[in-house]
Amino acid sequence: MRKLIVVALFLLPLSAAAQNVLWTALTEGNAAYVKGDADFPRLPPTRMTWAASQAPPFSILSCSDSRVPAELIFVRTVGELFVVRVAGNTPGTFDIASLQYAVANKWTRLIVVMAHSDCGAVKAAMAKDDSGLTDQLKALVKQIRDSGIERSDKPTPEQLRAAAEKNAKYAAGLVARSPVIKEALAAGTVKIIIAYYDVASGKAEQISEITSAE
Ligand SMILES: [Zn+2]
């Protein structure tokens, strides 16, 4: 019975206030992480709680960079985050498919597309020389360049951040315009937040948001 109620709740559009509560919950976790208070008690029982099913309300698209571990950054435990990590948070077909899967299952109410500081993929995309890159890496940096980033072999921290933000907004647009997610955004059942994570301070902050695919 309880499960039925939860499922019914998941089908309802969320008010703007309710969607803000979700992001606030993540930022509260992030504040604890910044302070060094990340704590994961009760892992075995939590694991068992979600052993037969999952219903994570958050999906995170972030970089593969070892300094960007979503569960630690937001202090979320087993069963709470559906995470897609790919270099440069640059979503390809299967990354978008993964997010569609989470949305189609009615779990995800908030998608966070998270850029980060000192991103090697963004640096590679800003660079003018592609020699030495494999065909696959060339395809990845091409997609980052498609976001309209500035090109520079020696970007300043400000230029690098601007490019990372532009790339994350572009990535979020690709996600937002894809089938299933586009419909969920239009129905108000899902929202996308574009965020920026600083690998030195540990702080994740909102840059912008998408509440519909238009
Ligand atoms: Zn990166």
Topology:
Blueprint: H1 2-11, H2 16-35, H3 43-49, E1 58-62, H4 70-74, E2 81-85, H5 93-104, E3 110-116, H6 120-126, H7 135-145, H8 157-176, H9 181-187, E4 191-197, E5 204-210
Parallel strand pairs: 1-2, 1-3, 3-4
Antiparallel strand pairs: 4-5
Helix pairs in contact: 6-7
What would the average pLDDT be, to the nearest integer? 93
In what order do the strands lie side by side in the largest sheet?
Answer: 2-1-3-4-5
Bulk shape: globular
CATH architecture tag:
3-Layer(aba) Sandwich
* CATH classification class: Alpha Beta
The termini sit apart by 37 Å
Which residues sit in consecutive blocks of at least 5 with pLDDT less than 50?
1-10
Order of helices and strands: HHHEHEHEHHHHEE
CATH-derived topology: Beta-carbonic Anhydrase, Chain A
Largest sheet: 5 strands, mixed
Structural class: alpha/beta
- When the domains are counted, the total is 1
Number of helices: 9
Q: CATH superfamily name?
A: Carbonic anhydrase
Helix content: 40-55%
How many distinct beta strands? 5
Bound ligands: zinc ion
